[in-house]
Amino acid sequence: MTRPTSALTTKYYVSLERVSLGLSLTRIILGFLLIAIPRTLMKFINVKDTQTAASIITSRAAGIRDVAMGIGTIAAKSSSEKKLWLRLGALCDATDAAAAMSRDPGLRFWFRALVPYIAFITALMELVLSLLITDSSTDEDPFI
Fold it and tell me: Could you write out the three-class secondary structure of the chain?
């Protein structure tokens, strides 16, 4: 007689480390794009003041923040450090979502609709990841 398999008894699961690494690499790539080509990205989303120094500095500052957050999450040595970086990333993404919802109505509709949703979902994922990561001192597999 064979036992029915369920998601709890199988060994196929998504590694929390891989999800965290994917989020961090995405954050780093987006950050480098914001630093390198801020005007192009602002034109893509239809920002009206792409030539002002304030908008370029703001875009590059957000890019620097994203690169630092991504590198910090990847470089975290312990699970408590990784939890801290993930929670800080969730806070940044939640504030980005709030800022994107309050933006100029002249922005493209997909930007006003999609970016807050993506930022909120990313913040939620980072928060859940920070709660699921266990202490690195335990040798138990939480998925068995």
Answer: CCCCCCCCCCCCCCCHHHHHHHHHHHHHHHHHHHHHCHHHHHHHCCCCCCCCHHHHHHHHHHHHHHHHHHHHHHHCCCHHHHHHHHHHHHHHHHHHHHHHHCCCCCCCHHHHHHHHHHHHHHHHHHHHHHHHCCCCCCCCCCCC
User: Which residue would you say has higher pLDDT here, 17 or 91?
Assistant: 91
The two structure tokens encoding residue 123: 């913040």
Band of residue 134 on the pLDDT scale cut at 50, 70, 90: confident
Distances (CA, A) of 15 to 40, 90, 105, 132: 35, 19, 40, 11
> Distance between CA 84 and CA 87 in Å, rounded?
5
pLDDT per residue as tens digits for the range 36-60: 999 888 887 766 766 788 888 988 9
C-alpha span between 22 and 107 (Å, rounded): 28
